[in-house]
Specification:
Elements: H1 3-16, E1 19-21, H2 22-32, H3 41-53, E2 57-59, E3 70-73, H4 75-83, H5 91-101, H6 108-122, H7 126-155, H8 160-166, H9 172-180, H10 187-207, H11 221-250
Helix pairs in contact: 1-2, 1-3, 5-6, 5-11, 6-7, 7-9, 7-10, 7-11, 8-9, 9-10, 10-11
Length: 251
Amino acid sequence: MDRAELRTLVFEILRKTPHTHFRAVENDVRKASDDYERRDVLLLNEILWDLLRQGVLAPGKNSLNPDLPFIHVTEYGTRCLEDGSILAHDPDLFVERLLDATDGRLPDVVVESCRIGLLTLLDGRSEASLILLAHAAERVLDDLAEALVHHGQVSGRGTKRLEGALAQRGRVPDAVARTIESRKLPNELQEEAERQVAGLAGLIRLARSDAGRPALPRAAHDPALARFILFPDQCRFAYHAIAWLEGASAD
């Protein structure tokens, strides 16, 4: 069975049966999918161990069965399963969501920074994960800034501020925020421009000082996870805005 497909089945089973054990999960998977084969049990065990390591699951089913192979969904895991943030515990599915949100336009460096960053977060290294996510956000805002520069050159608008910002790392977020307000984006994009650009800018500032120098972010697991959950929408806005700017520049 494919790992992503099996992981999705596991999530569905845990939502229905949050207090269970390894073999019960396997039995439920076998009933739910004709594609499951006996050899897939090792892959299933890997997925369950990952969820244990990430804090979605913990050992024990009840006071009579407090140890492995009995397991239960933690309070944190319940929140993830209920609010959709469980997607962030599936790096492959998270990347798929990113690519879908941007119509496949996302640069490889952004995709891989997000994938590795999420794996790093799931390993318990929140600060390191945010450095990688900030790196991805920086490329996204650079792409948006370059599209704004090109659109400005074609439409006869001033672009010195943006071009200067691209040469100085710390100035891009503010320059993009000021410039995009003056461009007549479609209403659905204009309405969220300030919020999404501010989100990307906030990510960059976590890992860069005002002078543009690398900095070490400070964040606990949950706030870092929230940053990852918001990132696909920020990318969707940015690359849809870029597509519109490119189309407008070509007219």
